[in-house]
Amino acid sequence: MENLQSIIENGGLYSDAKRISLGLDNCNIGMNAIKQRRLSLAVHCHPGTNVGRYVPFYFCPRSVMLYLLHRGNHPDLTYSGGQSPIIHLVSPLKDVVKYCDQNDIKWAFTATNAGATYTQFYGDLSDLGEISWKAVSATDFRDPEIKEGKQAEFLVFDFFPWALVSGIGVQNQAICDRVRIALERTDQKPAVNVKSDWYY
């Protein structure tokens, strides 16, 4: 929620690498060690690029990362605000791919965490079957294979336009009201809905 205003003002979301190069400040909810590693991990289907140069999305709500933020007890986390202020930005996959292809923007996806050294990258929608959709939709990820598969990511190079955000899911009405106030200043107003089942 804290980053929403700057996202709107900037017209979208920057990758970590781009954000750093521009000197932009933000509320960081990720693990710094993993974020640092992503800055050097190669995206093999687009030679010369690395994971940190892409804006990442999950294919699902209730991510493994959100669970860690909810628990708030992981030693590598500096964020301690809980899950309530975290909002979900939603965009249809095929719309994003169409936009990227029309504008010559690189995109890729993974079947596991893009920050892992063993991850495979795909740049063709015909490979979507490589993703375990059972794992992506699972609500119980104690099984290591399910946990891996649930962390599949979609990546957009450098910048993700605000105009592609079609929906916002939030945990409660108080955050919903705050998001709607923030959207008053923008022409692009995604639908905002309370999605408590997207949270822990």
Commentary on this structure:
The structure is a single chain. This protein has 200 residues and is an alpha+beta fold. The protein has one domain. Helices cover 31% and strands 16% of the residues. The protein has eight helices and nine strands. The strands form three sheets. Strands 2-6-4-5 form a four-stranded antiparallel β-sheet, with no helix packed on it. Strands 3-8-9 form a three-stranded mixed β-sheet, with helices on one face. The longest helix has 11 residues, at 173-183. The mean pLDDT is 96.
Please name the defining characteristics of this protein.
single chain, 200 residues, 3-stranded mixed sheet, globular, alpha+beta
Quick rundown:
The protein has helices at residues 4-10, 16-22, 32-38, 64-71, 93-102, 133-137, 144-150, 173-183, and strands spanning 12-14, 54-58, 88-90, 107-110, 121-122, 153-157, 159-161, 167-170, 191-194. The chain is of the alpha+beta class. Strands 2-6-4-5 form a four-stranded antiparallel β-sheet, with no helix packed on it. The protein has a three-stranded mixed β-sheet with strand order 3-8-9, with helices on one face.
